[in-house]
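seq as requested:
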Amino acid sequence: MRHRIWVLGAPDPEMELIERLLVDAGERVEYATVWRDGVRRRVTPAEAYAADVEIGEGLRGLRAT
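struct tokens:
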């Protein structure tokens, strides 16, 4: 069995639908995150492609490219 991890970007209606479909199918979902003002949080649309985006809270240490 292959394990997949889906890394989703900024929340918007389309991304919420994608997340719902993936979760309902039993897939693992993580989020692109950034560290801003002392807090790690999910990216906004303006930050989604920034150089310091990390690719998921549960995947700490891996970087988006």
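The two ends are 27 Å apart (CA to CA).
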